[in-house]
Design goal:
Methane Monooxygenase Hydroxylase, Chain G, domain 1, 2 domains, 81% helix, 0% strand
Length: 578
């Protein structure tokens, strides 16, 4: 094998992987929002969850993207861990569609003949001004590159039949009985880890099988290894995530490891079953029969081997799902026991919930995660306003200091969350994104800045109150009453802002008149209360220094209203379809 041939093989592999990612990316961009809605609506029981995971993964050709969407829904409370496990089981079945697509279109129909003309069609679509047509163009180009890459891989792989000694060396690894099975299983696992794609490993296994390098049973062992490798990848991605992300990844591992164990124990009977089903359904030679040899991928034996391997992949996941779908609650308990929640739930709620489970397959879905995190950020910020109201009403110095330290802590948390979301959005912006997504990202940058300022406001109020206490000043009953009215109006404005964020995330925000009304009420209250206290100062009814603290808090509350109307205005600019 020459150096040029080696680099051609590696380049073809890269083209295949890039095509797979591009195709999946285009599919997710074209159908991402609808798939998210479908995913949240169709998981009321484990069986519906399995069918949902199967359907979504079959469409977007990425079980990883499906899994990450599932994890985000678990964190949002839209899915329980039990429901998520059902969807992950279905995603495992859905990913077998890729194997059938490759074995049929890539080896039998040879779709690569049409790949170049299809790229022209993809190019024309990608130049369209309509975003969805661009996404479809990306899908077509990715589809073409995938099968061009597969075609080049088949052509650049050397024919070992021309060098019998090399072929004998390779095939000798398959002559050690069960030890060979474990060896090829490990090889499939490692190859999947290196390539970070079980679909690519499946394509390589199909090529090795069609070229006669390895027998059918060893190819089956590699497929089992691929199922282990893909779970390790998911656990690595979830290692930086929160508790629920790690539990979802661990449930995937338990599911696949259990399947590999029973498949190894029943390896020969399972292969005979796969061979029988392949022979019966397609009228082809039994690939699991003794003396079965592949002469070429175009021969009946070659077709039987390719279809048999895809059938094994499908039957493995279907049987495994049928066995374990009854035990989703038990699996959920097991992963919850293995991965314990942090002792302090107070600390847990301040961690990022939605953008810490590893990268998504497409920037568009990353934006969905970031928006979930922004809504979570707004809810945390509202807690700061509630503590500020408590601090105003607290006369006990020790309890006040506890509240003051919480407000300081919330200010630090706001800074950290803003930084982490901005860092995540920076990564999204570095990718190729659509114009509409770019507008959304710019709006999201502004929104997190306003939310961070809201976090600062709570700490500002705590400092004003501290200075008042140091100078031994107290507010009278009317002042406390007015400050409570102002605080309640701020909290109501928070509810309006969070409602607008949620509506925008669902694509249902039509106008922000509610936000303008909330902001106008805060302005009116601040002006009326300020004018009244100034009159009281002039008449000598109020202490000047105490009144200054009172006005400063009123102004801080009014500024919080300004930050919140800015958030809704940013939503109007970036998320309302005009």
């Amino acid at each position: 094998m020459s150096i040029l041939q080696l680099f051609t093989l590696l380049g073809a592999l890269g083209m295949f992987l890039y095509g797979m990612n591009l195709m999946s990316s285009g599919l997710q961009k074209a159908a991402g929002d609808r798939l998210r809605g479908f995913l949240s609506a169709m998981t009321s029981n484990p069986f519906k969850g399995v069918m949902t995971g199967l359907g979504v993964t079959s469409i977007i050709q990425s079980s990883s993207a499906t899994t990450v969407m599932v994890v985000s829904f678990v964190n949002a409370g839209l899915l329980t861990l039990n429901q998520a496990i059902g969807v992950i089981m279905g995603a495992n079945i859905g990913t077998t569609v890729t194997a059938w697509m490759v074995s049929w279109l890539g080896f039998k129909a040879d779709i690569s003949i049409l790949a170049v003309p299809l790229m022209l069609l993809g190019f024309l679509f990608s130049n369209s001004k309509k975003g969805n047509r661009k996404n479809i163009g990306e899908l077509i180009v990715g589809f073409s590159l995938l099968f061009l890459g597969l075609s080049f891989m088949k052509e650049s792989v050397p024919d070992l039949r021309q060098t019998p000694e090399v072929l004998n060396f390779v095939t000798s690894w398959a002559s050690h009985g069960f030890g060979s099975t474990l060896l090829f299983l490990a090889f499939g696992t490692i190859l999947t880890l290196v390539l970070q794609s079980s679909s690519a490993t499946m394509a390589i296994t199909l090529i090795m099988l069609s070229m006669g390098w390895i027998p059918f049973n060893m190819a089956c062992a590699m497929v089992l290894g691929e199922n282990i490798g893909t779970t390790i990848t998911a656990n690595i991605a979830a290692s930086v995530g929160n508790t629920q992300a790690k539990r979802a990844a661990m449930s995937h591992t338990i599911f696949n490891l259990f399947g590999v164990v029973w498949a190894l124990i029943l390896f020969q009977p399972f292969l005979r079953l796969v061979g029988y089903v392949t022979e019966t359904l397609f009228g082809l030679p039994n690939p699991a029969a003794d003396g079965f040899v592949v002469s070429s991928s175009s021969s009946p034996e070659g077709t039987a081997a390719l279809y048999g391997l895809s059938m094994l992949h499908t039957m493995f996941n279907v049987i495994n799902t049928l066995l374990l779908v009854w035990f989703t609650k038990l699996i959920a308990k097991a992963v919850s026991w293995i991965i314990r929640a942090p002792e302090s739930q107070e600390k847990e709620i301040f961690k990022l919930k939605y953008i810490s489970a590893g990268p998504l397959a497409t920037p568009e879905l990353c934006v969905e995660q970031a928006f979930d995190e922004i809504i979570h950020f707004a809810q945390i910020s509202k807690n700061g306003a509630l503590y500020a109201k408590e601090a105003i009403n607290e006369s006990d110095s020790d309890k006040f200091e506890t509240l003051r330290s919480k407000l300081v802590k919330y200010e630090e948390i706001s800074d950290r969350i803003e930084y982490e979301i901005a860092t995540f959005l920076n990564g999204v912006s570095a990718e190729e994104i659509s114009e509409s997504t770019s507008i959304k990202v710019k709006s999201m940058y502004k929104i997190i800045g306003e939310l961070e300022s809201l976090g600062d406001s709570g700490e500002t109020i705590s400092r004003i109150l501290s200075r008042k206490n140091i100078h031994k000043k107290t507010f009278d009953a009317d002042s406390i009453k007015n400050l409570n009215i102002m605080a309640d109006s701020v909290i109501s404005a928070y509810d309006v802002m969070i409602a607008n964020l949620t509506s925008a995330h669902k694509g249902e925000l039509e106008n922000i008149s509610n936000a303008y009304n909330a902001e106008e009420r805060l302005n009116t209250l601040r002006n009326n209360f300020r004018d009244a206290v100034i009159e009281d100062i002039d008449s000598g009814e109020k202490n000047y220094q105490t009144s200054v603290y009172y006005i400063d808090i009123m102004n801080a509350f009014e500024r919080m209203g300004d930050f919140m109307i800015n958030v809704s205005q940013d939503l109007e600019r970036g998320f309302i379809h005009k």
